[in-house]
Amino acid sequence: MVYLQKMLEFKKIHYLRKIEIELLFLLILATLVFNIFLSSSLIKSELKVLNPLSFQIFLPYEAKMWLKMGFLYDYANFIRKNTPSDAVILIPPQGFPWPMTGNALYFRYFLYPRQLINGKEKEPGVDFKKENIDYVLLAWGESGTSEYGFTNGWPKFFVPARRIIYQKNIQETGNLEAEIAKKDFYPDDPTNFKRWGLIEIDKERR
Amino acid sequence: MLLIFGVFLCFLLGFLILVFWKDDFRCGERLFLSFPLGLGMNTLIMFIQGRLNIPLDEKIILFILVGVVLFLFILAIIKRKFSFRSPRDFFIWEKIFKMFKVKKINKLEIILIFLLFFLVCWSFLVTLTWPVITWDALSLYDFRAKRFFETHSLAESVLTKGTREQISYNYSYPFFTSLAHAFVYFLGGSNPKFIYSLAYLSLIGSFYFVLRRKVSRTISLLFTAILATDKEFLYHSTIAYTNLYFALFLGIGSIHLLQWQENNKNGQLILSALFVGLAIWTRSQEPLWIAPLVFLLVYGVLRRKFLPLFFYFSTVLSFRQLWESYRSHIFESLGGAHLYLLKTSFYFDLTKIFLSFFYAIKTFLVNSEVSFAFFILVLFLVVIKKEMGKYLHILILMFLFIVIVWGGTYFFSLNFSWWNKIPGSIIRMSMFFQILIFYFAAIAFFRREKKEISFRLPEIKFKI
Lengths: 206, 464
Description:
The complex is a heterodimer of chains A (206) and B (464). Chain A has 206 residues and is of the alpha/beta class.
């Protein structure tokens, strides 16, 4: 207790009793251990960056973004590559299974200065001509979860298209290769199943 | 290189502000407080620069920053805040050695210092490795920073375009973190996340020193370690959200206000006013800054301390006015009120009063299990031991904070059907309260009883 009292710098008797101070001190130590235990998973998971096999710390920016965002980062780059900077793009409605591609405020970070407008699930929700829409996103959905009754695959409506630009091999890191099909977009066309890409609107027919 | 120089200038700016009240802070404490204070002030300067249509680019930003630092430096010399007799005295080695000459360190302290050192290094490792990636940081804070950088201005031409939801969202939070990110980009940096590790370091250091005034070194280190190992704080030191800076400014600012009442050190009052003001400059949506103001109003009126009251109110409210006037200027220039998305109402609903109370308590207090357990224990102890009068000041301030959170939740519940689906936001918001709880617990459990310092409002007699 004398040692503890010295450590606590008490000059005279504290309002707490000896045993209470000792118990509190032990409690504080236990709390610290408990906190370390709670945080250990977070600390350990991030220490992977030091792993000499992966060398995450020295990876270039693009690779780090891919590690954190997955194929969606490539998809954003694919859109950037295939659209002019002043393009107006119709994106899925906000909600799962499009938590990121359907969130205009989030997805704009990657696509700025392109303008993003939310559509509806089974209809455009906007007038293509009035809103001057240039492209419609072809987005299967980055999540398997559903919200507001939405299901994977977008758009679920006919789009008069000049061409459809599919992204090839989406799981291959950094692959921005495109496959072009000059046809209209029909939602029930099996070639569009589980595909990602862009639909370029035929402005004369919109 | 330019970036390191810029960060050093921010640090120097904060340090030189505090040097005017150097007797009120220990040297180490000033070192830890300097960076967040300097960064906050620098972003304010950048904001004013943008408002005056002076281009935001690295040369002008650095020129103004160097000018302000030099001005403060010369002022400090004139006011004899530095006392050199010869240039050689600039390096007062004796003083420097004295500063580091500490009392014998025990084993527990050595372990705790290593633990804190490890945590800070870990945080820097993460922030220097990963780019900005978290949701709000991408959709708002860093997005705005990139536009400031591209347009060399406050980017009104970009941020005022889009749907009304987008425009309103762009101006939903003040520019503090966005301008801090932009500062890094202007000076050639590509990843601004290290400023959050610096905030974590500042929080740890300033919490230690603020506690050290009241408790022993071991206890101060122990509670600092508990705060530093808290998962929420640790996580927020690695992501580019506003919550860590908000917690630092409001939490540490409130503690300095409490300590000012006990020792009347004006430096602490000034720092508290600046920090609470900077908390508004970080997040203005939650009106938590009202609590220190109401608290000081009651104290100032009862103790007839009108000058500090006037100073505190004018400082804090001018931070708020600076942002709010800009926001309303933007919205009015775009056609006015329709951009304020929140068309709200306030009425009496007994069910919602209870529901919002339980929800606020659950998310604001109970969710942080460790600090909540401390809170209950410390309350129990001070009540049982009839020591409540001694801690009345901190209890009143905490009560005011809880009332504001409850009031805010009630208001939210009246206007939004999804009011109880945002626990994450309230948990993040409550980080500053954890700082207060740990401070309260430390002083209630282990305060050095050198002399009896009690606080009692003259008109209130507390009896149990």
